[in-house]
Amino acid sequence: MFPIRDHNPSGRTPYVTYGLIALNVLIFLAYWPLFSDERALNVFFYDWAMIPAKVTQIGDFTGLLTSMFLHGGVLHLAGNMLFLWIFGDNMEDRMGHVPYLLFYIATGVAAGLAQILDSPGSMVPTVGASGAIAGVMGGYLLLFPRARVDILLIFIVFFRVITIPAAILLVLWFAIQVMAGLGSDPDMGGVAYWAHAGGFVAGVLLTLPIFLRLGGPLFWRATAGTPPNPEADYRFRRSSIPAVRKRR
After folding, report:
1. Choice among 67, 119, 122, 130 that is catalytic
2. Rounded to two decimals, what is the model's pTM?
3. What is the DSSP code (8-state) at residue 50?
4. What are 11-35's pLDDT values in tens digits?
5. Is 196 annotated in the active site?
6. Catalytic residue among 10, 76, 196, 239
7. Of 56, 135, 160, 181, which one is least surrounded by beta carbons within 10 A?
């Protein structure tokens, strides 16, 4: 199950989302030659990735920020950037450019801290934007739970695109991260499940003040959980909910 697009056009140009995608790609291309030299790549990741033991034992917090812009391969980068492309523009539209950028960085740091809590003495480097993007997904769940998302289902040689509510996709994704994290070995390489889960929770919590200013559950009632845009065939009922009217 892999999301490929959402039916939720943004109302403004998502300059920050575009910039984050471009920055991640450019940084990856800058160290791409190191993939032909495993030792050099390991040294590079030791210097710039998030390594829990470096944070807990020597107080080096640099990797909490720099690791958000590093990736372990082309598919790792492509998958993360696709998720950011799908969900980031609408969060930027709702939050504004600068607050969204701060939100993205904050959820990325929170994701790194969650991974550290799981394995404080681990020397395994953690890289990737997925923790911050998980935060974007958590915020998206709170603001646009019934936005329609196209997902690609693959069954061996059969595949099909179907459309489901964002809430189903995002809640299922979060549940998978938690269950996989419970069964993972923190001292082994692989997917940083707790970084994903931590970033997601941070995204929900940091989006909560916006959600409440919009009216909380009344915002969901006014929008029926769908994004207020023409593609969703939705007409915003301003007269019925003053809290939402003020924000619009």
Report:
1. 130
2. 0.87
3. B
4. 889 999 999 999 999 999 999 999 9
5. yes
6. 196
7. 160
